[in-house]
Amino acid sequence: ADGVADGVDNCIGSDTRPTVVIGTCNSKAGNGVQANGCTIADGVDQCAIDFPKKPLHYLACVAHKTDDLRVQRVITAREQVGILTCTILNGLRH
């Protein structure tokens, strides 16, 4: 339901909420679908999967992903701060 054909979609069952939500924290950052079929939230979720019980690695992963998105002008600096704030407030509980 994200508009990307399943054959090229890297994230079947994407989180398609309008904003990136981490735990109970709404970052207020847009949760757009990328060309590969993954939303921004999917990328943040992948960091949690890649670094379970390693909160600082998880935070570094999210920081790296959001920095790339900001440089590519997919998200704004304000949206990046919102995602990182939510990561710190809720995501570091992993």
Describe, in plain words, how this protein is organized in 3D.
This protein is mainly alpha-helical. Helix content is about 45%, strand content about 10%. It is built from three helices and two strands. It has helices spanning about 40-50, 55-70, 75-90; strands at about 20, 25-30. Strands 1-2 form a two-stranded antiparallel sheet. Strand 1 and strand 2 form a beta hairpin. Helix 1 (about 40-50) packs antiparallel against helix 2. It is globular, with a radius of gyration of 12 Å. The mean pLDDT is about 85.
In short:
The protein is built from three helices and two strands. By secondary structure, the protein is mainly α.
Task: Note the main attributes of this structure.
single chain, 94 residues, mainly alpha, two-stranded antiparallel ribbon, 3 helices, 2 strands
